[in-house]
Structure formats: structure tokens, C-alpha cells
Amino acid sequence: MKIRTLAAAAAVLSLATAPAIAEVSLDRAPAPVEGESQLQGGSGLLIAVLAAAAVIAGIVIAADGDDDPVSP
User: Using only C-alpha atoms, what is the Rg of the chain?
Assistant: First the structure.
């Protein structure tokens, strides 16, 4: 019973202190950049096309028309 109470108190303490710890700012400076990236948003279009193809493939598979029962 004592361990259960101690565990509950530790959980309450960690939940109470989590927001205060999250607010602490360390003010980190970003690293210097020597050159620009060669990727300029081209992958976003590719991901959108692949996602649209996956949605269309899912609709085609779901509406296949194979409505026959498997069991006799």
C-alpha cells in the first residue's frame, strides 16, 4: 500500500512539474549555413501524387465488385 501511494505521489509530481519544465527556453542559436539546399519543394508534389494514387487504389480495391460470400 505504501509503494502504491509513493508511486501515485511521484506521478502527480511529474505531471505538475512537466509544464513548468517545458516552458524553460535555452535560447539556442542556429548553426551557420554555408550553402542552400538543392531541393526546392519538388518532393512535396511527388508525395501528393503518391498519396492521391494510394487513395484511388484503395477506392478501386474496395469497390472491386467481388461480393460473393467466402463460406458456403
Answer: 27
**Whether the predicted model's global pTM rises above the 0.90 cut:** no
Cell of residue 63, nine digits: 469497390
d(C-alpha 69, C-alpha 27), whole Å: 63
User: Once rounded to an integer, what is the mean pLDDT over residues 10-23?
Assistant: 78
Burial per residue of 58-68, b for 16 or more beta-carbon CB atoms within 10 angstroms, e otherwise: eeeeeeeeeee
Residue by residue, what is the 3-state secondary structure of the chain? CHHHHHHHHHHHHHHHHHHHHHCCCCCCCCCCCCCCCCCCCHHHHHHHHHHHHHHHHHHHHHCCCCCCCCCC
Q: How far apart are CA 30 and CA 17, in angstroms?
A: 28
